[in-house]
Design brief:
It is built from five helices and three strands. Helix content is 62%, strand content 16%.
């Protein structure tokens, strides 16, 4: 991983909502926006904005499931970092 990619990854993980999203994605492997809204107690628009940042950074992938959009972690180093931080 390049220094630039590592910096971007850590920057994305520095936000408490995004860190919570990543934790939930790792615990459940895949989750839809509506479920994150309930689990993290955030609005759908807030969850969607944070997921867009993570997707644009290449940290998560999305797929359509009917009308829902579901996400999963695509960057394996996220799992390792959360394990080191002991928050997974």
């Amino acid at each position: 991983m390049t220094i630039e990619k590592a910096t971007l990854l850590l920057k994305m993980m520095s936000n408490p909502i995004r860190l919570g999203i990543l934790r939930e994605l790792i615990l459940r492997e895949e989750i839809c926006v509506g479920n994150l809204e309930e689990i993290l107690n955030v609005s759908q628009s807030s969850a969607s904005q944070h997921l867009a940042h993570l997707r644009n950074s290449g940290i998560v992938n999305s797929r359509k499931n009917g009308k829902k959009v579901c996400y999963k972690v695509s960057e394996e180093s996220v799992k390792e970092i959360l394990k080191i931080l002991d928050i997974s």
